[in-house]
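so i finally got all the pieces together for this one. its two components total, 804 residues if u count the protein bits. some of the lines might not be protein, just check the labels. i wanna see the whole assembly predicted at once instead of chain by chain like last time, that was a mess tbh
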Amino acid sequence: MQPRRRVPAARWLAGTAVVLAAAGCAPQSVTEQGQAVYNLYNLFLYLAAVVFLLVSGLVIWSVVRYRRRGDDLPTQTHGNNRLELIWTLIPTVIVLALFVFTIQAQNKVLDRPAKPDVNLTVTAFQWSWRFTYEGTGAEVVGRPETIPELVLPVGQRVRIKLVSADVVHSFYVPQTLFKRQAIPGTDNEFDLTFEKVGLYHGQCTQFCGLQHPDMIFRVRVVTQGEYQSWLAAATRRGQAGQPGI
Amino acid sequence: MATTELPLPALPEAHHEEPGGIVDYLTTVDHKKIGILYIFTAFSIFLAGGLLALLVRAELAQRGLQLMGENTYNQVFTMHGTLMIFLFAAQVSTGLGNYLVPLQIGAADVAFPRANAMSYWLYLFGSLIVLSSFFVAGGPAAVAWTAYAPLSTREYFQGTGMDLWIIGLAVVGVAGILGAVNLVTTIFRMRMPGMTMFRTPLFTWGVLVNQLLILFAFPPLTVVFALLFLERNFGAQFFDPTFGGSPILYQHIFWFFGHPEVYIIILPIFGIISEVIPVFSRKPLFGYRAMVFAFFGIAALSFGVWAHHMFATGLVYLPYFSIMSLLIGVPTGIKVFNWIGTMWRGSIVLSTAMLMALGFILVFVIGGITGIFLASPPIDFAVNDTYYVVAHFHYIMVGGLLYGMFAGFYFWFPKFTGRLLSERLGRWHFWTFLIGFNLTFFVQFLVGLDGMPRRIADYELDRWQPANLASTVGAFLTGVSVLIFIWNFLVSIRRGEPAGDDPWEGNSLEWATTSPPPSHNFHQLPEIHSERPVFDYRHRHDPAFATPHTDPERNPDRG
């Protein structure tokens, strides 16, 4: 657990984070699930670029080519059914295709096979987080002034049960390309499988009151050996009645 | 085309011009004056909301808290959203509709002039109630404009400001419903002889569909505010899970209003663009009927997509809301292509109104395309509640709404006042707005993709700073462009070039009367043979245009 020293932490993070590429590419994902989102996003982006270039090209071409040059009225065309049918059907086909790709990616992102490797309960509260490692006694609790750290093993499927102790929050680690709201009265479950060792920034993204900006956490993804020894120490602390913060 | 000029029936000469003094405006039931009151009130609220936006941007220009504390920041962005969405965006087009719809359909006034006045005054006082929350202990609400329960319940947010917020917005909601009954009735029942629905101008169509949406969407809004008020003040437990209530219920009802609200805001703008582009391309609108059907397609779909705001809750059926949201891209695409079809082989006049309409198309397409991204749940999981979403809806709201509104202002200002806005200042306005707006919001896509959450007074990561600084610079440039517009208005209303009745060679009936129109609107009206009566009248001696092929009503398979 680190005290809140913003600048060095941020600099450290800036080093590990992939600063997004030009032209609005999504940041590379560090989870297996996020990879599907990354690919889907780029597919959308390429299509969007084509559509935008087509539309803006046609607009600019029209303005340049068909500027008023005299008093004669142009031909008063009122429409063209065939053309209109085409530009109704083509977008329909495009969005249906995007829907199919969406469903495929979604199934990967939301897939929850029977047996995860790690079971974790994340409790969001005003204004920090509690990470409870189910079945081990290990627990990490943050405060607005101290950023809690979620230590996770690389390459293992982590099932997160997300709950809220008060208002609606949202659990978000940008580099997983995933977030989920923590809603009072509801258990929300999802899986994350980190594929890269590293320190990742996480933050509440659902506005939750006065100190919403301070609801920051870190995810430290470590090798399985390191994870086991960390967990053993954390469990000892937890059993001694001193959950880590 | 045989065009006779009909004297208006049943409008006695005794209907003299009233002086335009303050007392007159306080007591008026004239739809034009009420329209002006709406526009001025909404624009004043826009300026206040814009000032709050500049405070937000000023705070975010650098990391750390410089100008205000977290609580103040939360109040500022909450009230920015509240003023802009509830009290400006949905109202300014009601104002334009109030002024223009009776003129476009050849009516002397709206169906219920007194109810019309009542809607305006309810809107004004509802807005004042919301604004009064700035002056109570604890200040205004700080729960974001969406006011999600349970954050907005008394347990988590005390203070009279929140209650004033609810009461004021409920009053504005009632005003909206009343106004919608009035405008819908007007459009259905007050059209002049010959003005069939399929000869009605597109702006009137836009207002019709917009007001129908208000009729269906504002009641749930009023209900959810009533529930919240009961929960806050009388111990009701609608949103508290420990009493069998449900926080997600609030989100459902709110967004059942909230998504149609987007189309409530944008449909009249589609109407404005569909008026401006044909006039300045000197061609009829390409695919008139398709445009009308696209209005209704968007309106119908808009009630089936609300939960795409809730993908990240994990509690909604994703495929349904995803496909419905994606499909909205189709009628929207039809509109964009029809506008391009209108310009194609036209004779384009680049007036400021037309420039604004072109700017509208470009920024609206960016807003619309990114909307397609957000309709895909996996992508939404990544960018929901980040600055990506902020950028997306500002491309729709600021980009779409403001460009369309300004296009409308430049287009109809001569009709309202008898004078033209300065085209030279208009160009300055357009270009500063184009650069400022895109600088403000395009970088927000990037910083949002990089994970910066919305609604935070301070951000942790250094690498978000350059984009935020650029965004702030852009926001202030946008502010300058609005000041240029205000300057243009102040100069032009006194010394602007006289406009005459029909400065742009318009198509619809408002151009057949004087500028500004008399209190009973028309001294005489042309016969209606198509959706462009004033065009027909202007070319009545020209055999090339005297054939009925220009009439979508008579040739239902054309246009």
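Residues 1-23 of chain A have pLDDT under 50 and may be disordered.
The radius of gyration of chain A is 24 Å.
anyway lmk what u think
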